[in-house]
Structures are given as structure tokens and as C-alpha cells.
Design brief:
Elements lengths: L1 E6 L4 H12 L4 E8 L3 H10 L7 E3 L1 H10 L4 E4 L7 H9 L3 E4 L2 H7 L1 H4 L7 E3 L2 H9 L8 E8 L9 H4 L4 H4 L9 H9 L1 H14 L6 E5 L5 E7 L4 E5 L5 H8 L23 E2 L7 H11 L3 H17 L7 H12 L8 H23 L1
Parallel strand pairs: 1-2, 1-4, 2-3, 4-5, 5-6, 7-8
Antiparallel strand pairs: 7-9, 8-11, 9-10
Length: 364
């Protein structure tokens, strides 16, 4: 039986992880939980899983302490945003397998995270990166030609740049495939999320950013693909259910029978693939540029986006201004000579202040 800590246990990823643990009680045991603000639900979970007060935590700082102090085989990291970096570092330093749904901490931390991780210690929970990890088992590293991330296209697939200028908050929050939180739903609509996923893939798998491609696949049945040097393309397909990559991450590389229902092959299926328009969705080439620059640029990209998305949801800026603000903040950034935790945190704070200043100029 594997012991499990779930950070962000009251959120979407955390709740689904707990559902899986309820589904497989003979395989997994909860030994720690954390939440941000949902104290009542956290207390209900604590009682259900028989935990003491020392085995639950409230807030990102206490979650990092829990990740460090409580023994566990695997830690499911479902905290959202770059606030999860400390918990990521703590989990890795303590030797736990890190089932990572918090892509921001890897992107922000970069080599600070990958340098302390043992081979195979980080197991991705994002459906796209879980798919890549599965497809990469089909060949040797030297045979990998390209990683191909799929994107649903979001609610604005096929829109022109001009059409994006007039979209509303309500339209941006209507994702055609996935049910997610407000921030990540907006990130999916702007394609910032796909830009972050490109950076994450580079860090997870050591593939240069110029060999990471995106294809728009609105049915979201193919979660990602790997192209090999002989021309073969290996794809991972399943229904759209986060429980599959979560179940895999809990006991990687073992699969849990019946984690989700399989695709029904007695029915007809039509799957489309189309190129992404980088002239319209400028977050993609911007993310590629950020990945090439390295150092604290990914942290700045992420932090500026978080501020801009909050401003958009508050009705302070338009949808297309999200990426415009990220671009302007990046161009003003003067990174430190080397990557340190202090430098990352300082760059993040600077990016947030700079983004807020640009937002304020638009409001006035």
C-alpha cells in the first residue's frame, strides 16, 4: 500500500485524487492533506481519512512544511499558481515521488527544481504531459524527434485577432471540453496555458523547445503524441477524465484497472487536427521566446499572466490585453546572472508590480 499526501485536497485535482483513493482503498492510504481557504471541507476530509491535526495544513507555507515533515511515498501537488514552489522543492528534497499538477512551480523554479529531482521522481498529472510520459516509453531518448502537445483550441478556436478584441468574460469561461477553475480556463482560452505546457515539457523531458509542437485537436481524445526518428508517431488516447493521469501518477508506471471507462469503439469517432494560428494566439511564440531566454523569464511570464488574468476577470482590461501585458513585462525584465530561489522570488514580485502598473495605466 502506498501512502499519499494530497496538497490542494479541496480543489478540482485534489478532490479527484481523493475519489481515486476511495476507489482503490487497498492500494492507497491518505497520510496528509492541505487546502488554501476551504477550512470546513478540509476538516470533513480530515475526519473521513482519520488524520490528526498535525497531518493537515492550511495555506501554501504550511503545505510546504507538511510536504517536508510527513513521511509518504507520493505527494499529489494540486496547489494552483507559483505559490506551490516551496512545496515542490520540499517534496523533492524529502525523496517523495511528486505527482505534479502544479505546472507553475516547475516553470517558475526551472533548474532549481529539475536539479534536485532524481530520475523519474517527478510524474506529471497534466493530461498532456502524462500522455507524453506514456508515449516516451515506446522508444529510446535518442530516437525522439518531436513532442506534440494537443490543444482543444478553447472557446475561441478559429477566431481572428480582431474577433478576440471583443470577447467577454462569460465567453472566455466557457471551455468546450474541460471543467476547470476560472484562472486555468482563461489561460486555456488565451493559449497561455499551452505556452506554459511547452515550457513544462522542455523541463520534464529535456527536449529543446524548438522540437515541441502544438496541434489543435478539438475532440480532446488524443492527449499528446511523440514523433520518432523513423517517422512513427505514438499517441495516447482516452476519454477526457483527469482520473486517468492521476491514477497513473499515484503508482507510476503501474496502471489501476478500471480507473476510467475506455473509449467505446462500437461507436463512430471523428478526430480533427489543425495547426494553431500563432499570429492570433501570440502567447505561443512568446512562450517559446521565454523558454529560449531561460533564467527568470518563465517566472516573469507566469507572474505577469496571473496579474493580467485577475484584471481581466475583474473587468479592468480586455481579453487581448492579457498577452500584451505579459509581452511588455517580459521586454522590461532584466534577469539575474544566475538562477537562485531568491532571484526567482524577486523577479516574480517585480513582474507582478510591473504588470499591475501597466494595468493601472489602462484603467486610467
Amino acid at each position: 500500500m502506498r501512502s499519499v499526501i494530497v496538497l490542494g485536497s479541496t480543489g478540482s485535482v485534489g478532490s479527484q485524487a481523493l475519489d481515486l483513493i476511495r476507489q482503490f482503498p487497498d492500494r492507497f492510504k491518505i497520510v496528509g492533506l492541505s487546502a488554501n481557504t476551504s477550512t470546513e471541507l478540509l476538516e470533513q476530509q480530515r475526519i473521513e481519512f482519520g488524520l490528526t491535526g498535525d497531518e493537515v495544513a492550511l495555506g501554501a507555507d504550511e503545505a510546504a512544511k507538511l510536504a517536508s515533515d510527513i513521511d509518504a511515498d507520493v505527494l499529489v501537488h494540486g496547489i494552483s499558481g507559483s505559490a506551490g514552489l516551496a512545496a515542490t522543492l520540499a517534496a523533492l528534497e524529502s525523496g517523495k515521488t511528486l505527482a505534479l499538477a502544479n505546472k507553475e512551480s516547475l516553470i517558475v523554479g526551472g533548474e532549481l527544481v529539475t536539479n534536485i529531482a532524481s530520475p523519474g521522481q517527478i510524474v506529471p498529472v497534466d493530461s498532456e504531459h502524462s500522455a507524453l510520459a506514456q508515449c516516451l516509453r515506446s522508444g529510446d531518448e535518442a530516437e525522439v524527434e518531436k513532442l506534440i502537445l494537443t490543444a482543444s483550441g478553447g472557446p475561441f478556436r478559429g477566431f481572428s485577432a480582431e474577433q478576440l478584441r471583443s470577447v467577454t468574460i462569460e465567453q472566455a469561461l466557457k471551455h468546450p471540453t474541460w471543467s476547470m477553475g476560472r484562472i486555468i480556463t482563461i489561460n486555456s482560452a488565451s493559449m497561455v496555458n499551452k505556452g506554459l505546457e511547452m515550457i513544462e515539457a522542455q523541463l520534464l523531458f529535456g527536449i529543446p523547445i524548438d522540437r515541441i509542437a502544438i496541434t489543435v485537436h478539438p475532440q480532446s481524445a488524443v492527449h499528446s503524441m511523440v514523433e520518432y526518428s523513423d517517422g512513427s508517431v505514438i499517441a495516447q488516447c482516452s476519454i477526457t477524465d483527469m482520473k486517468l493521469p492521476l491514477a497513473l501518477a499515484l503508482d507510476w508506471p503501474k496502471r489501476q484497472p478500471g480507473a476510467v471507462a475506455p473509449i467505446d469503439w462500437t461507436q463512430s469517432h471523428s478526430w480533427e487536427f489543425e495547426p494553431i494560428d500563432e499570429e492570433v494566439f501570440k502567447a505561443i511564440p512568446l512562450a517559446r521566446e521565454v523558454a529560449l531566454r531561460g533564467l527568470t523569464f518563465p517566472a516573469v511570464y507566469n507572474a505577469a499572466n496571473e496579474q493580467a488574468v485577475e484584471a481581466f476577470l475583474a473587468g479592468q482590461i480586455g481579453f487581448v490585453e492579457i498577452v500584451s501585458i505579459i509581452d511588455q513585462v517580459i521586454e522590461q525584465h532584466n534577469p539575474p546572472a544566475s538562477l537562485t530561489l531568491e532571484g526567482v522570488l524577486e523577479s516574480e514580485a517585480w513582474a507582478r508590480l510591473t504588470a499591475d502598473s501597466l494595468i493601472a495605466q489602462r484603467i486610467s
